[in-house]
Structure formats: structure tokens, C-alpha cells
Amino acid sequence: MAEITFNDIIKPENLTYKKSKLMTDNVMHYCPGCGHGTAHQVLAEVLEEENLQERTVGITPVGCSVLMYNYIDVDFQEAAHGRAPALATAVKRLMPDKFVFTYQGDGDLAAIGTAETIHTCNRGENILILFINNGIYGMTGGQMAPTTLEGMKSSTSPYGRDISMMGSPIKMADIVAMLPGTCYVTRQSVNTAGGVRKLKKAIKKAVQYQNEKRGTCFIEVVSNCPSGWKMTPVESNKWMEENMFLFYPLGDIKVPAEK
Amino acid sequence: MAKIKGAVVIDQERCKGCEVCVVTCPPQTLALAADVNSKGYHFSYAANPETCIGCSNCAVVCPDGVITVYKVKIG
Predict the structure, then answer these.
(1) Taking CB atoms and an 8 Å limit, are A10 and B7 in contact across chains?
(2) What topology is assigned to A30-254 in CATH?
(3) For the segment B17-49, what is each residue's pLDDT rounded down to a tens digit?
(4) Which of A39, A77, A136, A257 has the smallest set of CB atoms within 10 Å of its CB?
């Protein structure tokens, strides 16, 4: 048999993986290796596969992902800093047939928006909260976030986070899992192909639970911030596996009973 | 025995050279080029294209979605 050439393989019928159609052609402003890009791709893939493009409303946060509406081709509404769950509540109550999600970083969700997050989860609004936790304020220049690990250096904790002065890092997923309104709480990552595929399954479950009106779904994505952590993307992924995953273990925290 | 051959097409102008695909690739098909694209990034390319198995791991972890994967069964 003749040797198969590159051009024989590159044919539409052999296509295995391609960027989602919902991703626009704009070049993302994220730093090289940032987990935000991967999380966007996964979200767009799920929205495409579940055929949700026409009935999705996303709420963008303030932070690195503030310009997310430029990259995914669905309807978006920009919220004031930290207020994405409050806005999502309004959208979902006014238009219950829409699929509503918020996409928030740790500064938005765990610092300025803690009250909105906790009360939205407590009320059990039928929305999906996607929480990207990279343990630092990426957009403003690497300051300490509530989720920064003990001893981790940032521009406002140059000697490492000191628990006696700055308190302990906050595990938002564990906190909201205790509230009766949440139906599905999980913690995932995007550093490996397996992690990305698990995240995709988690988002699909959240879509299903929202369709069934089961309550708030909360997905925490432990992510990296190569620029803020002052590492290369590969080093930052390794550091994340060795340090972040110890404090933020991956896996489901709360799973609803099957109907 | 049926063998699987894969191929990757990388949009090198959009690649930011983060190297995440290179470390994820099980048969070490990918590598960063010595050349740079117009933004100055060492883009990713298939250094050993004959080893590609079309597993899509590189494309799945790519933050910028620059990789398209094709796969064909032969034999």
C-alpha cells in the first residue's frame, strides 16, 4: 500500500477536532497559556453541541475576562464589578426560557461580589456560575486575591501571604456547597486534556440541571496566571498541580440525586 | 492491524507559543519553531508529523484554538 501523505489526511471527512463555530475570529487578548482561553473554548463547544446559541445570555464580569463578549458569539450583558449573579438573577427571572450563565474570576466572585454570589446561591436561582480561580488579580497587575494561597507571593504580598495578617484563602465552592439552593457544585481544571474533557462534561450537566430547574450550578475552574505568577505557561501549570490542587482538590463537591 | 494516522493544522499566525500543546502531546509530535510569527512568538509546529495519532489533546488544551486535527484509519 502506498504511503499515506499529509494531504490525504487533511480532508473534511477526517476532521476530528476543530475550534467551535461559536468562537469568533478575534484574537484573544489573554496572555500566552492563560486558562481563560481554554475555558472559553470548552464553554463555546458545549453551547454549540447543546444547540443553545439562540437562547443563551451570558453575564461577563470585571477582570481579565471582561471582553469575553468579543470571543463567543452569543448574547452577553456586562455587569458592574461583582454583580454578575444579581444581573443573572434578573435575566433568568424575566426570561426563564433562556440559558443564563455568569463567568467570573476570583476578584469578581470571591472579593467584591461575595454577597451577590452567596445570596444568589442561597436563593437557588436557576443559573450557572463559572468561577475561574487563579489565585491572583490578573488584570490589575498580580495583587493578592482572597484565593491566594498561604505563602504565595503577589505584588501586594511580596513576602508571601501571611495568614496571621491577611487571613486564610477562601474556598468558595465549599462555602456555596453548604447552601441549600445549590444543586451542583464541582471543581475542575483546564491544565490537561483530561481536565478539559471533564470540565466539558460538568458544563453539560449544568445545562441539563438548569433545564430541569434544579437550582444554582457552581463550577469552579482552578486555572493558572503565568503573567501574575511570573512563570512560563508550562511552569505555571506544574506549579498549579503541585500547590493549588492541594488546597483546592478537584472533583465534585455536591451532586444532586438522580431523578 | 488497523493503524491510525493523524495530522494537525496549526494557524501559526494566531499561535502565542505557550508550549502547552507541546507538553500535552503523547507521541511528542509538536515542538516550538525557532522562527517567530509576526507577533514575535515562537509558534508551534509538527516537528515529527509521521508520529501524530490524531488524539486531539493538543487542540483541546490550546487556549487560542489554533489547532485543527484530522485522523484517518489505514490498513
Answers:
(1) yes
(2) Rossmann fold (3.40.50)
(3) 999 999 999 999 999 999 999 999 999 999 999
(4) A257
